[in-house]
Design a protein that fits this description.
Radius of gyration: 14 Å
Helix content: 10-25%
Largest sheet: 2 strands, antiparallel
Order of helices and strands: EEEHHE
Oligomer: single chain
Distance between the termini: 16 Å
Number of domains: 1
Strand order of the largest sheet: 1-2
Length: about 100
């Protein structure tokens, strides 16, 4: 989960909390995300959340990260060029979300 390309790990603040309750981390299908781009991570809390082992999925190792910025930019470009179509009947509320890939 989260490191095969169809599902991605995302980190952010819960809506309406303005950061008061820490960061939320989840694995979400790539078909619900758009606008992939590579940005540096400056927040230690975000980096910890992205690199924490996926124990909630029975994994004791951290998720895979890209080895270079160039590799991450190539993946982001391929995801922009080849989006995954949302299945019919799936909620459209998530279709307009954007993702900042910070690996």
């Amino acid at each position: 989960m989260g490191d095969g390309g169809d599902q991605l790990i995302v980190v952010g603040h819960r809506r309406g909390t303005r950061g008061r309750h820490g960061l939320a981390r989840m694995v979400i299908s790539r078909r619900h995300l758009s606008g992939f781009r590579v940005q540096a991570i400056y927040s230690p809390a975000v980096l910890r959340a992205l690199t924490r082992p996926l124990t909630e999925f029975g994994r004791d190792r951290p998720p895979l990260m890209w080895s270079s910025r160039e590799e991450a930019e190539q993946m982001a470009a391929s995801w922009r060029d080849l989006p995954v179509k949302a299945a019919r009947g799936m909620g459209q509320a998530l279709a307009g979300c954007s993702c900042t890939d910070a690996r």
